[in-house]
Write a structure and sequence with these properties.
This protein is an alpha/beta fold and 268 residues long. Helix 2 links the parallel strand 2 and strand 3. Helix 7 runs antiparallel to helix 8.
Length: 268
């Protein structure tokens, strides 16, 4: 059984831990959680005192995890990523939008090589990532993705200065451009843009559209790819986490699956 630690105890992290606790197959041993914010009594009770909660990265590393999963924010990747990899610990990054910063990405890759560790990227709220990576090996020529969400999911982002989110009566496209720009301008909502870019044609050649649609109750992700393999179209209609409308429930399942795979003898 692999030892895993987690950075963050927000909605996605809590959902991930719940999924892992309900699995019948063997998963990793969670040896610690890094959370700077004061946890409520309800949150601590939910952990049942079974997982130590620390406030410093050194204390988390002292728990001797083999992998640390960042399930917090892009700021956490900047603050802790290099130190984790330098220490020889594998790092699973859910805030993939942070990797749109080319300087950070290069530093993390350098630290991974130096520490003999791996920088791991889950599929997140997406499917078809395995197909996209495989297609890249044979030659991709075009990758387009569309991310549609209900207006409330775009609140607190730059979309508020473009659209009247409360007054929308029909779907509106408010961003069209390369994945790097999407991931940079909408880091809380467009991690998927970065994931597709890294799996496919890169940040500059991946085309992204962002849409606010009042008819939706949850996120809708569409990926279209063309290459020497042929073409494919993939659509996932997800539901948002009850505690965080900006996040897809599928993201939590994806992280749980990645952590199970990390410990598993048979990996699919």
């Amino acid at each position: 059984m692999k030892k895993v630690a987690i950075i963050g105890y927000g909605a996605i992290a809590r959902a991930t831990l719940t999924i892992l606790s309900n699995l019948k197959e063997e998963g990793p041993q969670i040896v610690g959680i890094l959370e700077k914010k004061e946890l409520s009594e309800a949150a601590r009770s939910a952990l049942r005192n079974s997982i130590p909660v620390v406030e410093k990265i050194d204390d988390l590393l002292a728990r001797d995890p083999e992998l640390i999963a960042e399930i917090a924010s892009r700021e956490a990747v900047y603050e802790y990523g290099q130190k984790i990899l330098d220490a020889g610990k594998d790092l699973l990054v859910i805030s993939v939008g942070s990797l749109a910063d080319p300087d950070l990405f290069e530093r993390l890759k350098s630290s991974a090589r130096k520490g003999g560790a791996k920088l791991l990227i889950p599929s997140g709220a997406l499917g078809a990532i395995d197909s996209l990576v495989a297609a890249r090996l044979g030659g991709l020529t075009e990758v387009r993705q569309t991310l549609s969400k209900p207006p409330k999911a775009w609140k607190g982002t730059a979309a508020e200065s473009i659209l009247n989110l409360d007054g929308l009566t029909e779907a509106k496209i408010f961003f069209t451009g390369p994945a790097r720009e999407a991931a940079t301008q909408y880091p809380q909502n467009a991690n998927v843009a970065a994931t597709v870019a890294l799996a496919g044609l890169g940040f500059e050649k991946s085309h992204v559209q962002l849409i606010a649609d009042p008819a939706l109750k949850g996120p809708v992700h569409r990926i279209e790819a063309v290459g020497t393999f042929g073409s494919f179209k993939f659509e996932l209609r997800g539901i948002s986490l009850p505690d965080n409308p900006k996040s897809s429930a599928m993201a939590a399942f994806s992280i749980a699956r990645a952590l199970v795979n990390y410990s598993a003898s048979v990996v699919i």
